[in-house]
Amino acid sequence: MKPQLYEGDEDLDEYLAQFEILAEINGWNYATKSLYLAGSLKGGARALLNELDKESRKDYNSLVKVLDNRYGSAEKSELFRAKLQTRMRGKEESLPELAQSIKKLTRQAYPSAQSTITSVLALEHFIDALQDADLRLRLRESNPKSIHEAETLAVRLETLKLAERQKGRMVRQADSVQTDAKFNTELNDDKGEDLKSLKNELSDFKREMISLSRNIKGKPVEVGLRGRSQAGTEWPKSIKINESLANNEGLFVRAKINDKCLAFLVDTGANVTILSKKFIDEINPSLLPKINPVNINLITATGDSAPFIGQIDVEICLGNYIYHHNVLVADISNEGIIGMDFLVTHDCDVLLSQNKFED
């Protein structure tokens, strides 16, 4: 078995480790091993032979030394430390790929450190490199002892989270199919024509509300800003209006956007659904689509006027359901306001007598 050629692009420590194994398999002595290493150099690495005298070119230790001075980790440790500090998980990067990259960078950044120390450093940098704040928190709470244990746990948590998200979407789709089937059955009875007419009127009304929230230009949107909200960290099992806030302060429902909790003010007097600029700013920009500018003014119940910052498509999670909706962004005191466009588009009802918010 012959060794692969080396021209300086690959990790030198990894190449030499494999070279030593091949030398042992082939039974090379010191002199033969030295000649094979010199003969395996290519490109810039081969040019280093000119820096050695005739005898040193045939000496394995001399060859390793000149290669290490040029391509080794010791001379680039500061560069590797800077890369390690700023390393973040890529959008399409898997957790095993991230873990392998972190371990390699840690070894290159601290070439002379003991393995016990580099193991602890690799574990900390692996957790810090995760974009998902909830995943980082769960890993730290689990207190893994090694980067391998953290990687295994992270893969399991991410898989469970993805499964729950898919389950929520499937439940939503199943409910939608059942609702459509029930409605279509009713269209076949003696009052089918009247129901068809009613359905068309509702569809037209929905389109008007969506158009109003997305496409109106220059016309002020009047919303009633009333009360205040406080989004807690505990996620309820059912969607209910918070009884402690269901008074003259307003009616609120808890929700999530990009795994961040907030409390929406349910305002049937608002034409559109709004998110506060402060809430949007607290979300990692890489997790959100671009905010598109709009030419719309906000008029509050107090008569104050201010322009909307823009509009953005988001996924609003209410209980087990995820709703895709286009919302406006404005500098408001509430974290968010659910308006009539959301209620109509997603067939939601506000049951004041039962203190519930249902779809």
UniProtKB/TrEMBL annotation:
GO terms for biological process: proteolysis. Residues 188-215 form a coiled coil. Gene3D superfamilies: Acid Proteases. Pfam families: gag-asp_proteas (PF13975). The keyword Hydrolase applies. InterPro entries: Aspartic_peptidase_AS (IPR001969), Peptidase_A2_cat (IPR001995), Peptidase_aspartic_dom_sf (IPR021109). This is Peptidase A2 domain-containing protein. Keywords: Coiled coil, Hydrolase. The lineage of its organism: Eukaryota, Metazoa, Spiralia, Lophotrochozoa, Mollusca. Transmembrane segments: none annotated. One of its GO terms (molecular function) is aspartic-type endopeptidase activity. Residues 262-342 form the Peptidase A2 domain.
